[in-house]
Specification:
24% of the residues lie in helices and 32% in strands. It is an alpha+beta fold and 217 residues long. Strand 4 and strand 5 form a beta hairpin.
Length: 217
């Protein structure tokens, strides 16, 4: 399902997703993978891998920031151009359905004041108008084989593709047991958790929550 505009679009942690009428690409896929609910966590990263492939095929140089942001170099640093949100309904350990929501800033040229320094669009980066249908078709073509391989064989191939575009080796910090822990984002594991090496050499995993990345990147 694709929407011409969104009045209640949102991202992780209840954040608002800005989507002017007729300019951007906002769509959702309804998925019913025949896998255990506990195995579905990597799906957000796999959708990111497909978005990475999509934008690369259109001549961009995307970078993926764990867990669900797609970034482009806007000339003054990396800015967010797309985001992913997955929501799952399950029962007894079995998946009823997963809604995979994707928002891509395609043709908008202005942003609200609170987003102006953080976001960009494909048009602002390239300087020309892009056909939203072309972007959507490219994503579907990229996502389908990644998704089918995930359901049949697990996340390994899709996560390898995610790493190809991933923003790794960067400093970050997280709140852990009410303590700020600084480290370097090194990798992800098979569950999609981010692996961070702290300053004292400890390696720990982050499955959810807020990872803070200093700016500029």
């Amino acid at each position: 399902m694709a929407a011409e505009s969104q009045t209640g679009g949102r991202g992780r942690r209840g954040r608002v997703w800005h989507s002017p009428t007729g300019e951007n690409l906002s769509f959702s896929l309804l998925l019913r993978p025949a896998i255990a609910a506990s195995a579905a966590s990597p799906l957000t990263l796999l959708a990111g891998a497909a978005l990475g492939q999509t934008l690369a095929s259109l001549g961009f140089s995307p970078q993926l920031k764990w867990p669900n942001d797609v970034l482009l170099d806007a000339g003054d640093g990396l800015r967010k151009v797309a985001g992913i949100l997955t929501e799952m309904a399950s029962e007894g350990g079995r998946i009823r359905h997963i809604v995979l929501g994707v928002g891509v800033n395609v043709n908008n040229q202005t942003f609200p004041t609170d987003l102006a320094a953080l976001a960009t669009s494909l048009r602002l980066v390239r300087g020309t108008f892009l056909d939203r249908g072309v972007v959507l078709a490219a994503f579907i073509n990229a996502f389908e084989p990644i998704y089918e391989d995930f359901v049949a064989r697990g996340p390994a191939a899709g996560l390898a593709e995610w790493r190809r575009f991933a923003l790794l080796g960067q400093p970050c910090w997280v709140e852990r047991e009410s303590t700020r822990v600084e480290g370097v984002a090194e990798d992800v594991d098979d569950s999609g958790a981010l692996l961070i090496r702290s300053a004292d050499g400890e390696r720990f995993s982050v499955h959810s929550g807020q990872v803070n990345w200093p700016r500029p990147m």
